[in-house]
Prior knowledge:
The chain is of the alpha/beta class and about 260 residues long. The chain folds into three domains: about 1-30; about 35-200, Trna Endonuclease, Chain: A, domain 1 (3-Layer(aba) Sandwich), CATH 3.40.1350; about 225-260. The protein contains six helices and twelve strands. A hairpin with a 2-residue loop joins strand 2 and strand 3 (about 85-90).
Amino acid sequence: MLTNMVLNALQQAMPAFIVFLIFALVVGFFKSPFMKGKIGEWIVNLSNAVMLDKNTYIPIKNITLKLDDGSTTQIDHILVSKYGVFIIETKNMKGWIFGGEHQKEWTQQIFKQKHKFQNPLHQNHRHVKALEEVLELPFSKFVSVVVFAGECTFKTQMPQNVFGGASYNRYIKSFKQEILSYIQIEEVINRLQNSSLEISFKTDRMHVKNLKQRKQTEAFKNTTVCSRCGSAMVLRKNRQNGEEFYGCSNYPRCKNIMSKK
């Protein structure tokens, strides 16, 4: 009798539990970094379509380019116009944003939690250099723009090409000097279409792998290397006198040490 009551209770509760589970999965999916990025891109796409003349500013969306050195770069938005090639890097973030033009990392703060992220200006600079290579155009033909699409507040003075919301459109429209001919515009569009990789999960996965490899390479470049075996040197402390020194990470196979000074 008791067993039947328990089974009946479980059967009645199961539909509600399934609905809750589906709801939790959907909420978690939309809060994921991937979806936040896609929502930010969608907001900028909509803003471009509404605020900018599509015949004057021709949009090229979400392209991945493979460069001569084998690396890849993924660009959210490109606007090709007679006033130049505008490269827009999108960040969908909330909270307080702290950052400066020359800082390697910026900070996002939500209440007491702080999160470091790559300076988007540096990130977009790489995009510009990649387009220089692919399009064979000088740096002066490109305009870098960074847009924060989320509900965030800048707590430090931002450079003139960093914006919150749709205010970036006024900045783009402020460029009045014609620097690209119609023939050059057609050539830029054709080159981008011919050079970009297929939009697919495989391309995204390859790009993520490439990013990880590049970060590892950069981290290794910034690491002191053992002169004997080539392994990374790590900071250690002498237990007797408390002095810090660098010791080989390959210890005890390699016992090489060097002074911190």
